[in-house]
Amino acid sequence: MSRLPRVDEMNNVLEELSRQHLKGKVRALRLSLMALLTGGHILLEDIPGLGKTTMALAFAGALGLSFGRVQCTSDLLPSDITGLSVFDRETGRFNFIKGPVFNNIVLVDEINRAMPKTQSALLEAMEERRVTVEGVTYRLPEPFLVLATQNPVEQVGTYPLPESQMDRFLIKTGIGYPPEEIEKGILRQGSIRDEILHIPSLVTHEELVDAIGTVKKDVYVGEKVTDYVYAIIKATRNYPLIQAGLSTRGGIGMVDAAKAAAYLNGRDFVAPEDVRDVAHAVCPHRLIFRPEHEGVDKEQILNAILKEIPLPLT
Predict the structure, then answer these.
(1) Is the Cβ–Cβ distance between 186 and 178 less than 8 Å?
(2) Confidence of residue 1 (pLDDT cuts 50, 70, 90)
(3) How many domains does the chain have?
(4) In this predicted model, what pLDDT tens digit does every residue of 216-242 receive, in sequence order?
(5) Does residue 302 lie in a domain region?
(6) Alpha-carbon span 171 to 281, nearest angstrom
(7) Is the pTM of this model over 0.70?
(8) Known Pfam families for this protein (predicted)?
């Protein structure tokens, strides 16, 4: 097994952030980095006040990436995200004013409060890495990560994301309450927002691009692992309670996430354990249950599916 380039730098980002600034958020940080390394996006579903915005700011700062924020409301327009053309009287021409989506890390706060038309404005950006305004196409910066949040408790005045848009998120997870001692420390220390704004970059842009290229091209996925992924996909499609199981895109997402997990573990090949470990972050939000079973615990069903499929020996 050859030594993977930049893996120490990437793990150092996670270690420094979780040790100094974002204690108790190790899993959410790791999953966010995995999404960035694979070109995917992440949806954080949790109640307000647990540090989702602070985490996004710190994450962007430590990676030396530009940061944009969109606070979703019912009157938010697509142009508030993508930008718009403004007429310049002096030149007699329209100038395009870029919106917050033209940043490396874009925090879309409370995405389910935006109108469906505005939510759909994110689709092209998330999938194609570009936006089209008035017939002109503009490329988005690389790397590019949408980090969206939504409150799973309060549903008044919200517009649930359709399945087609949920599928655009590689990973869906939460942050959760921090452990008791860590939370007590946070209470003593108070807000660290000012400190977060001055976090120095821990990696160069070249190092980050190298890491992304390594995950994409140099982490090997063997036949046994592919068979294991397909077995999970097939099982979700045949499970009695599930109306629509994992799509091919969902399977690709599972492989991509497993490649990022293998890379951060210092390996240049994906093990079946990597697939199993990322399944709970990649699969549940893609499963569509039959109407009479919509209230079931998706995590519990996925656990049952995974238990029925033995890990292949590699």
Answers:
(1) yes
(2) very low
(3) 2
(4) 999 999 999 999 999 999 999 999 999
(5) yes
(6) 5
(7) yes
(8) AAA_3 (PF07726), AAA_lid_2 (PF17863)
Region of residue 46 (left: phi > 0; alpha: psi -120 to 50; beta: else): beta
**190, 210, 230 - which closes a domain:** 210
**How far is it, in rounded angstroms, from Cα 33 to Cα 263?**
11
Residue 313 lies in a domain: no
Same domain, 23 and 107: yes
If asked whether residues 14 and 103 sit together in one domain, one would say: yes
How open is the CA angle 96-103-78, to the nearest 5 degrees?
Answer: 55
Q: Are 145 and 284 in the same domain?
A: no
Domain assignment of residue 232, yes or no: yes
Distance CA 107, CA 145 (A): 9
Query: Using alpha carbons only, what angle is made at residue 90 by residues 85 and 91, rounded to the nearest 5 degrees?
Result: 65
pLDDT at 20: 84
SS3 of 143-188: CCEEEEEECCCCCCCCCCCCHHHHCCCCEEECCCCCCHHHHHHHHH
